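Homework help thread (please don't just give me the answer)

Our assignment gives two proteins as sequence + structure token strings and asks us to describe the second one. The first is just a warm-up. Here they are:
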Amino acid sequence: MTGVLVLSGDPTEDNHAATKKYVDEAKAAVNASLADKQDTVEFDSDYNSITNKAATVATVTGAISELEFSDSAAANQFVTSVSETAGVVSVTRAQPTTANIKGLTEALAAKVESSALAAIAKSGEVKDLQQTDDTILVFNCGNSTTNF
């Protein structure tokens, strides 16, 4: 066969010939639908930034849920450190000890034994106040102090 072959229209069956115009329009439609798509996808079911750039909704949702962290106060504990690894926050706590509270060791060492305190120092009540021959009572009378 020589010369130009003219087709009567677009193909309607699998084995029908197609015109150049029909093929060009189909190609343009496919290219338009792929314009915003990723060029290649090698999907192995898990996201991997090196070998697989695709991720399912479940993979993304799972990764986000792994980053979620909630924390609440723990009874009789205090936070000793807060750290972050791969987007996950960790909180470390400890029980308070004498060594954890600044100055407590010294304050406890300087504490006076209860037996050495006067009754008023233990109760805080004036009725427990006792004066002996060698003691001075000091009363605060507003703007002046009177010694008895």
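The one we have to describe:
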Amino acid sequence: MATNNEAPRILMIEGLQKHSDGAINALQHWNPNVVIQLIEAEHDFRISLPQIIESPPNLVVTDIMVPWCKASSDMPKPDEDVAREGFYTAGLRSQTLLSRNPATQRVPVLLWAMVDREDLDRVRRPNDTLEGVYLLKKCDDEQLRNDQLTDIVAALLSGREPRLAIRLTPFEASPLISSFTTLG
């Protein structure tokens, strides 16, 4: 959570420019002082991880499906877990890496994706640590999508529970079924 004297810092991991541009504009309209670091590929996130850990953001907003890297003639080879799982769980892998470090494990994470809870449960891994993680399904309407994002970001940065997101919990009895609480 940002203090009253400092600008809130958000790390956004989003591979679709049409989503990141609209979201950044909406968040900067909400708070002109917000500092947003945009990362557009999982490889770039992994390279930036030491700097992120050194100076953690107040909030992470990530899509679940993020490309490994930008297309180029010299694309880096994917790490073993990426090659095995594909881009479908990139946001979950990024969140797991953040949760493993004491400096970033308490930073709230918003999974902002085109998937719903049922879709997410199909790709979740039993070892995903989801403490402080929320899910918001992106809607097709750009204005509504950005309004919902701004509402949730404002709540999380002020330490309130967001009313439009689902708080995720770790798997309990079975890796196929997990409990959740809708916030309202």
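TA reply:
I won't write it for you, but here's a hint about the kind of observation we're looking for: The longest strand covers residues 9-13.
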